[in-house]
Structures are given as structure tokens and as C-alpha cells.
UniProtKB/TrEMBL annotation:
Keywords for this protein: ANK repeat, DNA replication inhibitor
Organism: Drosophila hydei
Coiled-coil annotated residue ranges, if any: none
InterPro entries to which the protein is assigned, alphabetical: Ankyrin_rpt, Ankyrin_rpt-contain_sf
Spans of repeat ANK: 35-67
Keyword ATP-binding: no
Protein name, per record: DNA replication inhibitor plutonium
One Pfam family in the UniProt entry: Ank_2
Keyword Cell membrane part of the UniProt annotation: no
GO biological process per UniProt: negative regulation of DNA replication
Length: 165
């Protein structure tokens, strides 16, 4: 059993035990999966607040970035877990997280249509946030337009399929 499998199973008790015996080097909380996710990154992606809190308590690397250039804040924004986002930002600044990710957290929140998170991030950095760009050069407005287009296309496809059937 590893920290990664505990997070996958949401097995908080085993995770706490593994973190305590980490000093024995039998288990590693910084082990990565095939995507480069540590247990902390995976807990953020899955929105597992309690797992993330345990990992942070035992010194999990909050600066970890997976093979896709995603960090803990980016992944917590993906799942839309506001409590997890707040906990992460209590330990590291919003601007610092954005500097270490290929895709700023606000852009992820915008793509996933987590409006509360988008508003929160914009309030954290009202001047810098509108100027943030993804590694591809897309800004916050570009992301919103892209999502709206995708939703419109899906809606049109559904209407066509309903008309055919």
C-alpha cells in the first residue's frame, strides 16, 4: 500500500499510518504515478481535502508539479473544491502557484465553469489576473469563449440527434 493508493481509495486512516512510518523509508509520500502526480497532487485532483491536509501535515511537497505542468492549486481548481483551494493558498501564494504552472488556476476554473473560484481568484489579484496567459497564449476571456463555443456545439449536436431520432 502506498500514499497514492490511499488517496485513490480515500483511505484516510491508512494514509495517516503511512505518513507516520515514512521515516522508515518503506513508504514514500512523494512517489509519483505515471502522470507525475504525487499523493498531494492526486488528492487535489480528486478533491480529497482530508487526504491533502494529512499529506501537508506530514510535509508533502506543495511545490510539486506533474508531467503536464499542473500544480496542487491547478488541480484543486479543476475539481472546484473551494475549501482545498483556500487551504493551499494559506500555505503558498496565488501568484507563486501561477508561476509554477503551465495553466493558471483561474483559467482552469474558467474552463470548468467554477464561477465562484474565478471570482475569488480575480479578487486575489484584480490587476494581474486579466493579464494571465496559458502557455498557449490564451487569456481568461479566450478560455470563457472556448467553453461557450464547445457548449453551443454540444447543444446543437443534441438538437440534431433528437430531430433525427
Amino acid at each position: 500500500m502506498s500514499a497514492l493508493s490511499c488517496v485513490t481509495e480515500n483511505d484516510i486512516l491508512s494514509l495517516r499510518i503511512i505518513c507516520k512510518i515514512e521515516a522508515n523509508q518503506q513508504y514514500k509520500i512523494e512517489e509519483v504515478d505515471k502522470y507525475g502526480n504525487t499523493a498531494l497532487l492526486k488528492s487535489c485532483y480528486l478533491g480529497r481535502l482530508e487526504c491533502a491536509l494529512i499529506l501537508l501535515e506530514f510535509g508533502a511537497n506543495i511545490y510539486a508539479v506533474n508531467y503536464f505542468g499542473q500544480n496542487a492549486l491547478t488541480l484543486a481548481s479543476y475539481c472546484g473544491n473551494m475549501q482545498l483551494v483556500l487551504e493551499l493558498l494559506h500555505r503558498r501564494s496565488y501568484q507563486d502557484f501561477n508561476l509554477s504552472s503551465l495553466l493558471p488556476a483561474v483559467c482552469v476554473a474558467s474552463m470548468r465553469q467554477h464561477k465562484v473560484l474565478v471570482k475569488y481568484f480575480m479578487n486575489l489579484d484584480p490587476i494581474g489576473t486579466p493579464n494571465l496567459r496559458t502557455v498557449h497564449g490564451l487569456g481568461l476571456n479566450d478560455m470563457g469563449q472556448m467553453v461557450k463555443r464547445k457548449l453551443r456545439n454540444l447543444s446543437q449536436k443534441k438538437m440534431i440527434n433528437n430531430a433525427i431520432n
